[in-house]
Specification:
The complex is a heterodimer of chains A (about 230) and B (about 475). With about 230 residues, chain A is of the alpha/beta class. Helix content of chain A is about 40%, strand content about 25%. Chain A has helices at about 10-20, 35-45, 60-70, 85-90, 105-120, 155-165, 175-185, 195-205; strands at about 1-5, 25-30, 50, 75-80, 95-100, 130-135, 135-140, 145, 150, 170-175, 215-220, 220-225. Chain A has a five-stranded parallel sheet, sandwiched between helices. Chain A has a four-stranded antiparallel sheet with strand order 6-7-8-9, with helices on one face. In chain A, a hairpin with a 4-residue loop joins β7 and β8 (about 145). The longest helix of chain A has 16 residues, at about 105-120. The N and C termini of chain A lie far apart (about 50 Å). In chain B, about 55% of the residues lie in helices and about 15% in strands. Chain B contains 13 helices and eleven strands. In chain B, the strands form three sheets. In chain B, strands 6-8-9-11-10 form a five-stranded mixed sheet. Chain B has a four-stranded antiparallel sheet with strand order 1-4-3-2, with helices on both faces. In chain B, a hairpin with a 5-residue loop joins β3 (about 125-130) and β4. In chain B, α8 packs parallel to α11. The longest helix of chain B has about 50 residues, at about 210-260. At the A-B interface, α1, α4 and α8 of A face α7, α8 and α9 of B.
């Protein structure tokens, strides 16, 4: 059984989900408000945390912000459908993926499995070597990154995204492939989350010389990680 | 400064009025002064001059030319009065003087019985009369008086008039400023409010004015307060409705999956149906909320530059993915690079609704043709299906919520009749227009959106088009 924490104020829904996820080999523990959810998340070790953004009192985004200061546990956000701002803020604050509410529970299970697949699969045996490109050093075994000698804190999804880029620098990678690699799931229609992750990565790494982007968008194709010499 | 502003109008009209009043006043003073001159000349003033004339005649007649010359010099030195004496036939005793003196002399010679003559020339009075000396000899006396002593009581010289008009202008300027500046502040507050800044207020700008303009400002503030309260309560209500309607739906879908696990083959179809209806309900709630947000003005747009061709391409990709199982196709005929200002998410959903609607009504084995063209200052998006079209009389109604076109377009794939309404409101919110017409093949929907200002004079710049970070939604 995989331990999962669900932070959602809808008590009836959490009960139903507990029952449903039980059958899918998830051990669902639930909290119904922000502070108690945060406490549970910090004091127990869960494989994934499912966090509703619309919580009474302390909002889900605040919970996420505080959680990320101490823990890098994968977080799947539940957002209100149509609230793009919540979704983007959540991904920027370090959520790994999101699911608009109301959701199909089968989709929830698929997303949870994708996150788990990605996080359990952290050290690919073939390429566990540290990657050193320009001012960037990436250590897959410790999942740590330094940029210009300074450590950079990345979420799991961002790390996998960067690692995917660095395995083929200078080559265009499609948004579908990046989604598959970074989020462990196929890209769905209308899915812009990979773009948010890319923009977070850009922001955290900074630009070359302060004004040349590391990651360039290629319209209709995807993204490319540029080497310092390849500046357009 | 614009020429037709209230400030300029108040300033110029008041100044014109002030200048006119000053002008009329000056004119009246001058006329009345001139008219009262004979009166004053006859009165004691004239008596004094007569004595002066007699003294001059006596001096010459009795004391000789030398004493008279001295008299003339002293008179000019002490009072500025020029004194001339003539024989009755017009021969000057000393100097003849200028032509004004000569003119007065001539008048006196022509009508000696009338006595005194005077002329007012450039503010100075030239006065004369025949005068008998004690010896019995007659002379003609003419004097020109110095200006100040006889000028109008209130100095109305041209420079002074000009200065007073300028001072009046300054006063009018301040008055216009005083009247027009609160209006300016009110206007900027109203504009800010209209642009969506619900916190725009006038009262702090007006200080402690107490007049009607200040009252108008306070009335605006009350109105703004009320509208802001209404909009925020509307937003809260929408969020509550959204939450309250969707929570049961979320529970329903989990319960459904649980039921599915424990069910046998026979109930699978019914469960599928429940799931489908649940999704339909969920979608409808979403659309209703979106439409209400758009119509109530509760929708906040964080404007950003949207690369429309990219957005349209993405929607086409998604739509053709969904159309393929139905043996339909969505194809882009032409996609010009168009930049518009607005919310990418709202525009995406508007375009998606229109294209989905076309996919729904186009028959299998046909293609929905989409084109994005750059025309003057607009991006023009056309979506053409091969469906039955819409009766001409009903064309303008298809953007109304839940409007159903007679029998021709029955519900087939769960369209709630809100998609086009949402598209319509969204496009209008972005300052564009949406029109439905019947083309040769089917229904043709045309959306026009104003281009971003930078592109209006810069047609489809390719370097700009090549630089395209994926559009990140932010609102």
């Amino acid at each position: 059984m995989i331990p999962v924490l669900l932070i959602d104020d809808d008590i009836e829904l959490t009960k139903l989900l507990e029952e449903y996820l039980q059958g899918e080999q998830f051990d669902l523990n639930s909290a119904h408000d922000g502070p108690s959810g945060l406490e549970k998340a910090l004091n127990n070790s869960y494989s994934v945390i499912v966090l509703d953004v619309m919580l009474p009192g302390m909002s889900g985004l605040d919970v996420l912000k505080q959680l990320r200061q101490k823990s890098s546990v994968p977080v799947l956000m539940l957002t209100a459908r149509g609230s793009e701002l919540d979704r983007i803020l959540g991904l920027e604050l370090g959520a790994d993926d999101y699911l608009p509410k109301p959701f199909n529970p089968r989709e929830l299970v698929a997303r949870l499995r994708a996150i788990l697949r990605r996080t359990s699969n952290t050290t690919p045996a073939t390429s566990a070597q540290p990657v050193h490109i320009a001012d960037l050093e990436v250590h897959p075994e410790s999942r740590s990154v330094t940029c210009g000698g300074k450590p950079v804190t990345l979420t799991g999804a961002e790390f996998d995204l960067l690692y995917t880029f660095l395995r083929s620098p200078g080559k265009i990678i499609s948004r579908e492939d990046l989604t598959q690699a970074a989020l462990g799931r196929p890209m769905s229609p209308m899915d812009r989350s990979i773009d948010v992750h890319v923009s977070n990565l850009r922001r955290k790494l900074g630009a070359y010389d302060g004004n040349h982007e590391r990651i360039k968008a290629i319209r209709g194709s995807g993204y490319v990680y540029l080497l310092p010499g390849e500046q357009p | 400064m614009k020429f037709r502003t209230l400030f300029v109008k108040i300033f110029l009209w008041f100044w014109l009025a002030a200048a006119l009043i000053i002008g009329v006043f000056v004119l009246m003073v001058r006329i009345s002064y001139n008219e009262s001159l004979p009166e004053r000349m006859r009165s004691s003033y004239g008596e004094a001059l007569s004595l002066y004339a007699e003294a001059a005649a006596h001096t010459y007649d009795h004391d000789g030319l030398r004493a008279f010359n001295e008299f003339v010099a002293r008179s000019q030195r002490e009072s500025g009065t020029l004194v001339y004496l003539f024989e009755t036939d017009g021969r000057p005793i000393t100097s003849p003087g200028d032509e004004n003196i000569a003119a007065v002399l001539h008048d006196i010679q022509a009508h000696p019985q009338q006595g005194r003559y005077y002329r007012l020339i450039s503010g100075r009075v030239t006065w004369g009369r025949p005068v008998p000396a004690p010896s019995g000899h007659n002379y003609i006396f003419v004097a020109r008086l110095s200006a100040p002593s006889l000028g109008p009581p209130f100095a109305v010289s041209t420079p002074r008039v000009a200065v007073s008009i300028l001072i009046a202008g300054l006063g009018c300027y301040l008055l216009a400023l005083y009247l027009a500046s609160p209006l300016k502040k009110l206007q900027s507050a109203v504009q800010a409010f209209a642009k969506g800044n619900l916190n725009a207020r006038v009262a702090p700008e007006l200080g402690n004015r107490k007049d009607e303009l200040a009252a108008l400002g306070r009335d605006f503030d009350h109105m703004a307060e009320r509208i802001a309260a209404l909009i925020s309560s509307q937003k809260r209500l929408l969020a509550d409705i959204s939450h309250e309607l969707r929570s049961p739906l979320a529970r329903l879908s989990v319960a459904l999956e649980l039921a599915r696990k424990n069910s046998n083959e026979k109930s699978a179809a019914a469960l599928d149906r429940i799931e489908k209806e649940g999704e339909r309900l969920n979608k409808l709630v979403g659309q209703l909320l979106a439409l209400t947000r758009l119509e109530s003005g509760a929708e906040e747009i964080l404007p950003e530059t949207v690369m429309l061709e990219e957005l349209v391409q993405q929607v086409i990709d998604d739509a053709s993915f969904e159309a393929k199982p139905l043996r339909k196709e969505v194809r882009a005929i032409q996609l010009d690079a168009c930049r518009v200002i607005g919310s990418p998410e709202l525009l995406r959903s508007a375009i998606e609704n229109v294209i989905r609607n076309a996919v729904r009504y186009t028959p299998p084995e046909t293609t929905v043709e989409v084109a994005l063209r750059w025309k003057l200052d607009n991006a023009v998006l056309t979506v053409n299906d091969h469906g039955p079209g819409v009766p001409e009389a009903e064309l303008e109604h298809i953007f109304e919520p839940f409007y159903r076109v007679s029998e021709a377009r029955e519900r087939t794939s769960g369209g709630a009749g809100l998609g086009l309404s949402i598209a319509d409101r969204t496009v209008k919110l972005h300052g564009g227009s949406i029109v439905a017409t019947n083309s040769d093949s089917g229904l043709l929907i045309t959306i026009q959106l104003p281009l971003a200002p930078s592109q209006s004079n810069n047609n489809g710049d390719q370097s700009q088009a090549a630089f395209s970070p994926a559009p990140l939604a932010s609102g």
